[in-house]
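Many introductory courses stop at the sequence. We go one step further.
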Amino acid sequence: MKEALSARAALAECSHAPDRFISVLGEKWIPCEGRCLPSARRFVRDVVADWGAAEDVPEVAELLASELVTNALTHGAGGTHAIRVTVSREGELLVVDVHDTCPALPRLRLASQLDLSGRGLAIVQTFSHDWGWTVTPYDKSVWFQLIAWSGSDGPIAVR
């Protein structure tokens, strides 16, 4: 019970505010298969570039999305479940969410120099404006934010 309470406290600290207005710029579903990782990376990069994000943002978003999708493929619930990738805008912020059905929460760890894996979330933490996770009744989302637009770009209209 104590673990559940600390997990809920951690969730409260790590979820971006769902009550804010967020414009979804694109969404893609991919099978839980490693061969689909390049498709997810290209999708994020293309959507971010299409919406006119700052110069280096498409490449950084592609890298960070690659780390989160790889984690979902490696640690997420496999089988017939799909992974959903959404690209959204919240003011100046680009938000990329990677949804999977695995109930396990992501854990930032310190990989040694000899470890072949375990650096994904550290990369996300280093290069993002913010990152975290959100648990819903249906899935878990691991997300990151990047400052992608200047304040003068103004909000986008969604119909």
